[in-house]
Write the C-alpha cells for this entry.
Amino acid sequence: MTDTYRHKGLRAKLVEEIKKKGIKDEEVLAAIGRVPRHEFMDSSFINFSYKDKAFPIGAGQTISQPYTVAFQTELLQIEKMDKVLEIGTGSGYQAAVLFEMKAKVYSIERQRELFLKTQDKLPKLGYRPYLFYGDGYKGLPTYGPFDKIIITAGATDIPEELIKQLKTGGRMVIPVGSAEQQTMKLIVKKDDKLEITDHGLFAFVPFLRDKAY
Ligand code: SAH
C-alpha cells in the first residue's frame, strides 16, 4: 500500500470538510482520517479519492460518500468490540472505517465480483472483517445477535429478519424510501418496542432482494 504525505494531507482536509458538515464524533473523524480511501477506489476515479462524493466501483455499484459513511457510523455509536453487521460490503470502505473503530465487523455482499475483489484487498490493507457472499436480507442468523446493524443500500422497508438479529438495546441504521431517495432511519431495539427516528434524506443504490443463490 502506498499512503503518501499528499494522501494524508488530502485526508486531513476531507476530515475538516465533513466536520463542517456536522459530524462530531471524534472517533469517527479519526477513523475517516486513517482509512486510505484511495485504496478502495476504481482506478478511473483515483484522483477523486478525497472528494466528498460517491463514485462507481464496478458492477453498477458505488463507494459511499465519506460524509454518508461518517453519518451512518456516528448514528451507530460504535464501541470497542461491538459486533457489527454491515449489509452491502461494496468496496469495503465502510467496513474498514468500522474496523478502525475496533468493532468486530461482519459484512455481506451480493455481487460476486465485488465480494471477491474486496475479500482479496482488505487483508492486504490490514483490515480483517468477516466477509460473506450472499443475500443481506437474510442477515447472518448463526453469527448474531449483533450490537449494531448498518445497511448501506436503499431499502423499501425495514427487514424483519434483520430486526430479529439485533440485540435488545442495539442500534440499526437503514436508509428507507424509493429508488431515488431514502430517509435515514435509526432504529433502537427496546425490550418491547422499536424506537424509530428519522435523520434526513440520502440517495443510495438499491438494496436488492430475491436473487437466487
Ligand atoms: N458500504 C459500501 C457501499 C456499497 S453500495 C462501501 O463502503 O463501499 C451498496 C452495496 O450493497 C452494493 O455493493 C450492492 O451490491 C450491495 N447490495 C445490494 N443489495 C444487497 C443484498 N440484498 N445483500 C447484500 N448486498 C447487497
